[in-house]
Amino acid sequence: MNKLWIAITPLILLLGLESRAQTVAQVKNNKVLMELGSLTTQKGDDVFCLDAAQKRKGLLKVTQVKGSKAVAEIVKGACEQGMAVRLRRVGKAGGGDSASSESRPRRSAKKTGQAWGIVGGYHMDSAVATFTYSGTEYSSSMTGTGFSVSGLYDYDLTKDWQFRALAGIETFNTEGTVAASACNNGASSNCDFILMNLSFQGLAKYNFSTGSMRPWIGGGIGYIFALSKSSNVINTSELSTNWLYTLAGGLDWGLASGAYIPLSIEYSQFPDSATVKAGYIAVRGGWATSF
Q1: 136-156 and 69-77 as β-strands: parallel, antiparallel, unpaired?
Q2: Tens of pLDDT, residues 84-104
Q3: How far apart are CA 224 and CA 129, in angstroms?
């Protein structure tokens, strides 16, 4: 449980940053103080105030920019503290407007709706093996850590839904003990279960925000092919391929020029077999760019 909190805490902090980004911080005497977050603006820009339903409630004119804050005057409508802000850009016809690429996830500006990248992962592995030695049945609860390196591919299905594919190498390392010397054909009380896998994983992601920081939640399945395997309590000759079920959440942190940092925490579970139950919690982070 402590490992889980350690893994989740940085993600919670990052999501907290998003809640303060690109918002109205203060309204006084027809003037508005804005927290810009990752939004880029300058004096003279027009900015919309948006309610919780992302409907425009006011139009602002930026009068001063300093660091991550800006001051603007209310030109039309009304703005309230806590409202989101979005940069206005005049269309070619002169009368329209659209959201600036800075106020959307920067990767969403890509023409193809696709992105690729690379991610690394730290895994907290666990397994419970049931086996028999000298007519007695034993159960060993094993834990350990593994790592992964994967290629990433993102595809925008809709504004809110996205498909993510991962393919790479990952390790699964667990060990534990039993009361008697029953592991390794009675030679030890220390049991182990170790894999190196070729992993293919697909996730459906729902994005909660259209900001440059996009928190999401999702789920999917994976296909695991064991490249190497060893255990002193499990018959590894019976292990070749396996399915994997995953629940995940994360944050895609937008950078300049269509790049972003994909961050996630995932809980994955192998289907139970007669001799072993296994799964892991993975914390992933990396870099991706649109194309």
Answers
A1: unpaired
A2: 888 886 554 444 454 444 444
A3: 19
